[in-house]
Design a protein that fits this description.
This protein is 26% helix and 25% strand. Helix 3 runs parallel beside helix 6 (210-223) and helix 3 packs parallel to helix 12. The protein is an alpha+beta fold.
């Protein structure tokens, strides 16, 4: 097959239109184009009067009409080339030892699941321990919390099979160029995700489709000889002569000891009790910068119009997104994160008496509102302590304030942007009605945020409006508080991804401070699997 880039397509393109554009660009008969598949597809909305798609495709031709060799020869100026066939292959320097002890993975988020999947595919029979429940039961617990306010501290938006990303938008974009990315996308598709994630420039699965995909990955790991044990919480690590020798876990039936020599810590960014245990064991953890702020919510129709102009709602465009950032004179950055088109703001607490928000979208992204985290960068200098866990304590402090401001019932404090800008408590809503899943309390959210955060948010909202018209709309809703954008710690590891403190211990993924989303966490999990596999060869 051949690959052709820089194909321009209308927003209402059809299969025939794509074939026609390929033929037109290469100056060949449309009949010569037998089939095609997208390699990359993105929206170009830089000019609001000329919104269109840009595509790259792989295609085959009818050799009776024209040969691939002739097309390349005649089209040196066009970006046409032989399509490379590349597949991820786990490279080991020998055969896997049959008696190699099963690696143990703590956490069944993206890092843990993909680490476990690759190890299982190699025949290493990993054991995955997850403090929460399987995704099916977890969904019920989350919905119950949103409805009743009864929080299960081990089965919620943060904890449980699939990790925190399961109750988000299932966004799969990443700024990394890791060769393992294709492996992750292909495995998602093989386990039930939409095929379009293989080529969309901004792929997403949706919180309605991701749970089934996660379940299928788990079942595949088990079928390949691995184990996935739910409601198993890591409480201690047995270390001897600087090496992992075993662990202690808490189960529904009490405490259990498990022997292991290779332990992957694929923790989530909210595993605060585990971070405390690691510090007490003398495992080196350092403070890490992260961000705090709020969720900002607009009408999706406004976002679509701002991004697509008169093209909004036409053809295949669907709901538009955005990604905005500005650097302020006070030295802080204000930016949007985890934007959920047509989505919902959700209650995401994992500890009783603390309030946390997040956002999620279903695959169709067809809700009335859009929402995004609106965050201010903070550094260890803001933590007020040299403790490696000072960042987590700052998170707790803000989450406690938000819980109290909301009425101590997991209702979230909310405020119109217009009121926030003049430090006035909101008393009524305009054209944007908050979507937060556990109910809201009208408030002045400045009362639960540090002054440097509120000042930066006010400045940032005005500045970001110049990048997205309508962003500072007075009726937009701010919901407090967003604190879990990334881990507040980093568990230090060496070039072989082992802890600098203990051999056989692999800090991995987002909670360990080495990832920032589903894709980077999953690829980090695969990397750790590869390094463990190297130990297992004859």
């Amino acid at each position: 097959m051949l690959k052709l880039s820089d194909i321009r397509l209308p927003v209402d393109y059809t299969e025939e239109a794509v074939k026609n554009e390929i033929a037109k660009k290469l100056n060949i008969s449309q009949k010569a184009v037998r089939s095609f598949e997208f390699v990359k597809l993105s929206v170009d909305a830089r000019k609001k009067n000329d919104v269109h798609y840009n595509a790259a495709v792989k295609f085959s031709v009818d050799n009776r009409i024209v040969s691939e060799k002739d097309i390349i020869k005649r089209n040196r100026k066009n970006k046409v080339e032989y399509a490379p066939e590349s597949r991820y292959v786990i490279k080991t320097n020998g055969s896997i030892k049959k008696d190699f002890p099963s690696p143990v993975i703590v956490g069944a988020g993206p890092a843990g699941l993909f680490c476990g999947l690759v190890l299982a595919q190699l025949g290493l029979e990993p054991v995955i321990l997850e403090r929460g429940k399987c995704v099916e039961k977890r969904q019920k617990d989350v919905l119950s919390f949103w409805k009743t306010g009864e929080l299960d501290i081990n089965s919620n938006v943060q904890f449980g099979e699939g990790g925190a990303g399961t109750f988000s938008d299932g966004k799969l974009n990443t700024g990394t160029k890791d060769v393992r990315i294709k492996k992750v996308l292909e495995e998602f598709v093989r386990h039930g995700a939409p095929e379009e994630i293989l080529y969309n420039a901004k792929p997403h699965i949706g919180t309605d489709k991701l749970p089934e995909t996660v379940k299928n990955i788990r079942n595949d790991i088990i079928m390949l000889g691995g184990k996935v044990l739910f409601e198993h919480t890591l409480t201690d690590i047995d270390i001897k002569d600087g090496r992992v020798k075993g662990i202690t876990v808490r189960t529904k039936n009490g405490y259990e000891k498990i022997d292991c020599e290779n332990l992957v810590l694929a923790l989530g960014h909210s595993a605060r009790d585990t971070f405390e245990m690691l510090v007490n064991k003398g495992i080196y953890i350092q403070q890490k910068a992260f961000s705090v702020g709020v969720r900002i919510e607009h009408l999706q129709s406004m976002i679509n119009k701002a991004q697509y102009g008169s093209f909004a709602g036409k053809g295949r465009l669907g709901s538009s997104d955005y990604k905005l950032a500005v650097h302020l004179e006070n030295g802080r950055g204000v930016y949007t994160f985890c934007m959920c088109p047509g989505g919902t703001v959700v209650a995401a607490a994992s500890e009783k008496g603390y309030l946390v928000t997040n956002g999620m979208s279903e695959f169709a992204r067809n809700g009335i509102n859009s929402n995004s985290a609106l965050l201010v960068g903070i550094t260890p200098e803001d933590f007020g302590s040299s403790s490696p866990l000072a960042g987590a304590e700052l998170q707790r402090k803000l989450e406690k304030r938000a819980f109290q401001l909301g009425g101590e019932s997991y209702k979230a404090p909310v405020q119109r942007v217009a009121d926030f800008m003049i430090n006035k408590k909101t008393v009524s809503f305009g054209n944007v009605i908050p979507s937060y899943t556990a109910g809201v309390t009208m408030a002045n959210i400045s009362e639960c945020l540090p002054e440097y955060v509120t000042a930066s948010l006010k400045n940032g909202i005005v500045r970001l409006n110049s990048k997205l018209n309508g962003f500072s709309d007075g009726d937009a809703i701010l919901t407090a508080v967003e604190t879990r954008s990334s881990s507040p710690v980093r568990i230090l590891r060496d070039d072989m991804s082992e802890s600098v403190s203990v051999k056989g211990l692999y800090p991995c993924g987002e909670g360990a401070g080495y990832a920032g989303g589903i894709m980077s966490a999953a690829t980090d999990g695969i990397k750790c699997a590869e390094l463990i596999a190297e130990k297992a060869v004859l």
